[in-house]
Every structure is written in structure tokens, then in C-alpha cells.
């Protein structure tokens, strides 16, 4: 191959790689947007908001009707969550449950919302308000390193980070291929940014997959074994709203761990949350 053919071939290869990279980036971004899109029926959300507003309107004069309206709102939001889970839907459902007096279920929903949006101040504030209603203060497990770290990058939503990561990786790769050493610094910076943002999205997925929290929804005794015949671990029953981590499940019973490391067994019907019979 002579000297004039070599540059022509290189340009052809670069043009092919450029076209393929652009096509890949477009497809990846479209997939990222569509897979994270809102699949909730607007009318369903409107009905949930209407029921919630009705509950607020009747709260003072007709508590029973208000509670029914709040539960209706929570039920509609639960249906929406089944199709398109999000921190906002979880947060709104937690608010409805809290207004309905379902403290345990509300705290469980706030915790799930928090896991989806760890930097959302509204969720943190309402979770703190719900916890203040627990009859007896119980220890809450401290968040792990991954949870604490996620609150740093969680200020930018996951979809935005994922799309930005794809764009940065694509741009960095194109600059590296097209301009070579002339754009080495910029391409390295873009590739590094893309890798970091991608890592945060992967970390969020791992954090959510490992999220396990249960909340006491009716006062219950923490026992030394999986049966009513076993002695209590604590002198007093666990109050509604107590947060714990499920460790082991047996028919009708779940071993849980409290925030201070205390372990014991409770009937699964007394809990609400992941890995329980009455999961949220």
C-alpha cells in the first residue's frame, strides 16, 4: 500500500467508526430515556391527588371519611408504583398513609423513597416527622458507606447521569479516534467523566438491590424464637413504626435486627416492608 492510499484508508476507517459511534450513542440514549420513562396513567395520579385533597378537606369534621380518602389515595398510588416506581410516587403514598394513621406503612414508604432519592430534603423531613410519632424511640441502623456516598451524587437524578455518561464516553472516544494526540487531554477527561458517572449509576443499582428494611405496623413482642411460646427479648413490645432489618424467615415468622444490633423474632404479619408477608 503506497503513501497516498494509507491516509485515505485511515479516513475511511475513522468515518466508519464515527458513524457507528453516533448510531450507538443515539440508540443508547433513546433506550435510556424510554426505559426510565413515566408509564403512569395521568388520570390515576389525578384521582390520587383528588382523594388526598378530599381527605385534607374532611380531616377536621369527618375523620372517618378523611381516613378512607387517604387510604384510597394510597391505593391508587400503589397501583401506579407497580408500573413505574419512583421516589415521588413513594413519597406521595407515604404522605397519604401517614395522614391515614398508618404509621408503620408510611415510614416503610418514606424509607423506600429515600433509597430512590437519598438527597431529597422533603423525604428526609417527612421521614423525621413520621419517626417523631413513634411511641417509644427505638434505635435506627446507621446508613452504610454506599448510602452515605450516594447522597453526594444523588443531587443529579439517575437518568441524567446515565445519559451524560453515555454522551461523555461517546465524545471522548470520538475525539480520541478522530484527533488522536491533539485532543488527548480532553478525550481522557471525557472518558474519565463518563466512567465515573456510569459507576454512580451502577452503585445506585447495587444499593437498591441490597435495600432491606421492615417496619412494625402493629405493636408486637420481639421473641427469642419463632413462636409465641418463646420468651421476649425485650421487656416492652416493639412500638408501631420501629424500623428493623429482616435476617431470616420461617413460616409465619421473621428474625429481625434492630438498629442497636438486638435480634429477635416477630410474626411476619406485624411487619410491613420488603421480605415480609405484607410488603409495601
Structural commentary:
The protein is α+β, with helices and mostly antiparallel strands. The protein has helices at residues 5-35, 42-58, 63-83, 87-99, 103-116, 121-131, 145-153, 158-178, 184-209, and strands at 214-216, 243-250, 253-257, 263-267, 271-272. Strands 4-3-2-1-5 form a five-stranded antiparallel β-sheet. A hairpin with a 2-residue loop joins strand 2 (243-250) and strand 3 (253-257). Helix 5 (103-116) runs antiparallel to helix 6 (121-131) and helix 7 (145-153) crosses helix 9. The protein is globular, with a radius of gyration of 25 Å.
Order of helices and strands: HHHHHHHHHEEEEE
Q: Roughly what fraction of the amino acids lie in strands?
A: 5-15%
What is the radius of gyration? 25 Å
List the total number of helices.
9
The class by helix and strand makeup works out as: alpha+beta
Brief description of this entry?
The chain is of the alpha+beta class and 280 residues long.
List keywords for this structure.
280 residues, 9 helices, five-stranded antiparallel sheet, single chain, 8% strand, disordered C terminus, alpha+beta
List the helices and strands and how they pair.
Blueprint: H1 5-35, H2 42-58, H3 63-83, H4 87-99, H5 103-116, H6 121-131, H7 145-153, H8 158-178, H9 184-209, E1 214-216, E2 243-250, E3 253-257, E4 263-267, E5 271-272
Antiparallel strand pairs: 1-2, 1-5, 2-3, 3-4
Helix pairs in contact: 1-8, 2-3, 3-4, 4-5, 5-6, 7-9, 8-9
Amino acid at each position: 500500500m503506497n503513501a497516498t492510499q494509507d491516509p485515505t484508508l485511515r479516513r475511511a476507517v475513522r468515518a466508519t467508526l464515527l458513524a457507528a459511534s453516533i448510531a450507538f450513542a443515539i440508540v443508547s440514549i433513546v433506550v435510556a430515556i424510554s426505559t426510565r420513562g413515566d408509564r403512569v396513567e395521568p388520570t390515576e395520579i389525578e384521582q390520587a391527588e383528588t382523594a388526598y385533597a378530599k381527605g385534607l378537606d374532611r380531616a377536621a369534621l369527618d375523620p372517618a371519611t378523611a381516613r378512607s380518602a387517604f387510604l384510597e389515595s394510597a391505593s391508587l398510588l400503589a397501583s401506579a408504583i407497580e408500573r413505574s416506581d419512583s421516589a415521588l410516587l413513594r413519597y406521595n403514598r407515604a404522605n397519604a398513609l401517614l395522614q391515614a394513621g398508618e404509621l408503620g406503612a408510611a415510614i416503610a414508604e418514606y424509607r423506600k423513597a429515600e433509597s430512590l432519592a437519598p438527597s431529597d430534603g422533603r423525604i428526609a423531613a417527612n421521614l423525621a416527622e413520621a419517626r417523631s410519632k413513634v411511641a417509644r424511640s427505638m434505635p435506627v441502623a446507621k446508613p452504610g458507606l454506599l448510602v452515605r456516598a450516594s447522597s453526594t451524587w444523588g443531587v443529579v437524578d439517575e437518568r441524567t447521569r446515565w445519559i451524560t455518561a453515555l454522551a461523555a464516553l461517546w465524545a471522548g472516544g470520538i475525539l480520541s479516534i478522530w484527533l488522536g494526540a491533539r485532543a488527548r487531554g480532553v478525550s481522557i477527561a471525557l472518558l474519565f467523566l463518563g466512567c465515573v458517572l456510569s459507576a454512580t449509576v451502577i452503585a445506585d443499582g447495587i444499593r437498591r438491590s441490597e435495600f432491606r428494611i421492615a417496619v412494625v405496623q402493629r405493636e408486637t413482642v420481639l421473641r427469642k424464637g419463632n413462636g409465641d411460646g418463646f420468651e421476649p427479648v425485650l421487656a416492652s413490645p416493639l412500638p408501631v413504626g420501629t424500623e428493623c432489618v429482616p435476617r431470616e424467615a420461617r413460616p409465619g415468622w421473621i428474625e429481625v435486627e434492630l438498629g442497636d444490633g438486638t435480634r429477635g423474632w416477630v410474626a411476619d404479619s406485624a411487619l410491613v416492608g420488603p421480605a415480609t408477608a405484607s410488603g409495601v
